[in-house]
Specification:
It is built from no helices and 5 strands. It has a single domain, classed as Beta Barrel (OB fold (Dihydrolipoamide Acetyltransferase, E2P)), CATH 2.40.50.140. The model has no long low-confidence stretch (mean pLDDT 90).
Length: 87
């Protein structure tokens, strides 16, 4: 069975080796035919511990690492403008 891969934005990075990633999805309402946004938060393992709030990352499903962590960060897609250091 293939592993699920999701893309989201880090909303919390306080704990050691753990980040909270908010994944947003859109779907069409079955009756009203309007597109609705829903979001869900996932705890993911960050081995490098270098990610900041606002970074866009991809996470992959893995074996349970702790009670809440069953995802790992695989790539850092883009740094947000306010987390970059000034030149």
């Amino acid at each position: 069975m293939p592993k699920r891969v999701l893309s989201g934005i880090i909303c919390k990075a306080n704990n050691k080796n753990t980040v909270v990633v908010e994944v947003e999805r859109t779907f069409k309402h079955p009756i009203y035919k309007k597109y609705i946004k829903r979001s869900k938060k996932y705890h993911a393992h960050d081995e490098t511990d270098a990610l900041k709030v606002g970074d866009k990352v991809m996470i992959e499903e893995t074996r349970p690492i702790s009670k809440l962590k069953t995802w790992i960060v695989i790539t850092n897609e883009k740094r947000s403008w306010y987390t970059m250091k000034p030149i």
